[in-house]
Each structure stands twice: as C-alpha cells, then as structure tokens.
Amino acid sequence: MVRFENVGLRYGMGPEVLKDVTFSIEPNSFQFLTGPSGAGKTSLLRLLFLSLRPTRGLITLLGCDVSSLAADEVAVLRRRIGIVFQDFRLLDHLTTYENVALPLRILGRDEIDYRAEVVELLHWVGLGDRMHVLPPVLSGGEKQRAAIARALISRPELLLADEPTGNVDPSLARRLLRLFVELHKSGTSVMIATHDVTLMDQYDARRLVLSDGRLHLED
Description:
Layout: E1 2-10, E2 16-25, E3 30-34, H1 41-48, E4 56-61, E5 64-65, H2 71-78, E6 81-84, H3 96-106, H4 111-124, H5 140-152, E7 158-162, H6 170-185, E8 189-193, H7 197-201, E9 206-211, E10 214-217
Parallel strand pairs: 3-8, 3-9, 6-7, 7-8
Antiparallel strand pairs: 1-2, 1-4, 4-5, 9-10
C-alpha cells in the first residue's frame, strides 16, 4: 500500500528533517508512529497525505509513484486517504454534521443515503447533541472528535492520525482507539502518530520510531 525508499525531506535550504527513511505499510495493517517532538512525525504524515513532495527518494502510494502524479491525480488519490490533523482544520461556516459529511458530499453521494450514517457516527464519538453547532462553539476535545469522525466517515483505504487523542480524556481516548481498531478490522490500514505510551500499550501493533529524522522499528 505504501513504500518509502531512502526518502529525504528538507524545507527550503535548511537541514534535512527526514533522512533516508525506508519503510512500507501493508494493506489492512495497523501501526503507531512515535518519537520525540521535532523528530519529523508530522512531516512524514504530510508526505503520506501528498501535501508535501520528498526532496529525494521514492514514495509509492496506493500503487502510484508520487513523483509522477499531476495535480488532478493527487486530488483523486487523496480521496482514498483519511487524515486527522493536529489543528483539526474544520470549516467554521459548516456545522459539525456538515463538516463530518463533507467527504461524502465531495464523493457525490446524496444526503438521503448518508445522513443516518453520519448521525450514528456523531453519536458514537459523543457529539450527538453538538451536530448542529458551528466549530467556534466547540471545545478543543469536541473539535478533535469531529475531525476524527470526518476522517472515518468515508471508510478510507489508509487512515493517518496526528496525535488524535491529545485533547480528550483517557476514557474517551480508549474509545476512540477502539474506533480506529474497528476501522482497521474492516480493511483500512491505520497509522497513528502519538507520544502516548499508555495508548500504544493497549494494542499490539507495530511501532515506527522517528529520532532525529531517522526511522527504525521498535523491537
């Protein structure tokens, strides 16, 4: 599903933030991405979501050589990927319900076909009574849950999550992890970037560790 071969990344003329990164993600796999702040986790996720291109090396994503993709092909490929950003990126002029339903609208589905699905997911993440309010009214934890629901609603082939439980209490964090696990069981490959060792210890999954821009597998 994903292959990185000797990938390097630098911003402008600065030093490399990712150095000779080589790894693969298999279909229907679950992995954590961890490491200290500044190690390059968010940069790696941005490469996976195609919002960055590598400075060097080869990235193959969902069967496509990223370096050869035109802008319209990138847009199509992104529809097969779900992502939870650390800064949420909800649209302030849309309600919680509309934000979560947006990926399905982009795919051209009729609301009559997806409304019940969106409502059920919002209730599951604890936002059933907040679905008709705008994001500026939501707390940080509520925005986090809305962003997670939006990433999950289209059942992507690859799900990327950047510190998805960073703004919720431990009980809800465990519940959200179960949601990621259920999505994985349905066939989605999942990569969660997190500092939370307690969270990682709850699931037997591969751990990819970034340190000083270099990646290794934790034993």
